[in-house]
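Exercise 7. Predict the joint structure of the components listed below.
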Amino acid sequence: MALMGQMMGAPLLISSIIKHAARYYGTTEIVSRRTEGDLHRYTYRDCELRARKLAQTLEALGVKQGERVGTLAWNGYRHLELYYGISGMGAVCHMINPRLFAEQIAYIINHAEDEYVCFDATFLPLVEGVAAHCPKVKGWIMLADRAHMPTDPKVPLLCYEDLLDARDGHYTWPELDENQASSLCYTSGTTGNPKGALYSHRSTVLHAYAAALPDALGCSARDVILPVVPMFHVNAWGLPYAVPLVGAKLVLPGPKLDGASLFDLFEREGVTFSAGVPTVWLGLLQHMQANDLKFSTFRRTVIGGSAVPPAMIRALEALGVEVIHAWGMTEMSPLGTVCKLLARHADLPEEAQHRILETQGRVIFGVDMKIVDGDGRELPWDGKAFGDLLVRGPWIIDRYFRAETPAHDDGWFPTGDVATIDPDGYMQITDRSKDVIKSGGEWISSIDIENVAAAHPAVHMAACISVRHPKWDERPLLVVVKRAGMEVSRDTLLSFFDGKVAKWWIPDDVAFVTEIPLTATGKMQKLKLREQFADYKLPTA
Ligand code: ADP
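Solution:
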């Protein structure tokens, strides 16, 4: 018989995070821009009390442990209450991405079998559109007070504030099994139907601990943290858990994600740390450059979700903001790797440091990774060999929600990304496997091409996609949105690549467009672009 440790068996529960924040950081603030238009402020103590009232409400509505409750909401204090109230009472908080097509939203709600769906006022028309297709939903709860409820909704609604007002908050968080399901997120499903990743209390708490570490996101009680990444997109990268866990002030931007509104909130609330996808920072940078603005408190941001162009790292650095490049996915809760320098990199020349900081970084404890070739053989960590990236760990998906079979072979989950790993363990994504360009049997990294293009002063956004070619099978086409008021020709842009990438990687042509379609999570929608340019005739063809 093994000798067992003799420590207390306290389960790792999501409720313990908010209980901790309320007890030890009780007066620390949560500030939210509301759909009502104003700024709302209260404390962790207030938040926990209202989360308890919500748990009482759900029990009164008949929601049982393990049942799903959907959310369609911006980053705000009520959404945070849903995160803690729903999971804390043992039900499953299902964050739905409102930017998906209505049919996909209905599909997700039905697949998850949501009992109730809680939504922000913004999404009333969406709810009115999908409700008829979601017959199993017992009620739609609008996140508003009585005064803001619509007078004549097309769907019967419950009023969130009325429901909470009817409860006294005398509620004790249940001692759940830490392996119980806590929350559910669907991938945006650029191909096929969206698939659900069902997180547990244990995986969520472990992920929050890891995310908060200094060489991961690095959250501290002395920070003021504003997640721009939506709470409907992979738990806002775990920040709604990691921030209360460390007791930092939390600032939630609601629906206002444009450059001007974000800048205003950063300055007003003294934000020190933030997180978001590259497209968000494009908007903010543009606003700041146009108005010659400077940050007074903002020092660090995590950027991920797609590759961060080096030009963006430089532009933010010039404003005094350290960029922390991170990689992950819905199936990984989402954090996998974060890019920080090691101690021995301190004396490297700036250029060399930058080259490291442009990679997706090293794994955080809890994640293990490897790259393999087409036959599943492990590839060397030489920074050159690239192959399919596989991961494993306690917050990585075992199987999709309601799937019969595991999502992995031999305990390694295939991410669908293609990457290199260097001898120090710095991983670099060359592409999503679907986006790789195969020219004459050799692979071209679309991300590398985009990174070069993004550094050109006249380029606002650039996507590199494959186009059919009679001789090479596929060749790269660069699709570009020009910066407002700037001009650049096809030939000038192509010559900008000279010496920066291998000659045969240089795109065969440039297509200027007014807009690049974005996915529901703010990434360039290359699948759509490929469809749009399916019949494009390259000058080299
Ligand atoms: P989706 O965008 O499909 O809804 P995710 O947000 O989970 O879902 O996307 C995960 C994918 O995003 C990763 O597999 C990877 O292709 C891409 N990704 C995330 N972070 C980065 C990054 N820092 N660099 C390059 N690609 C990234």
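Discussion. The chain is about 25% helix and 25% strand.
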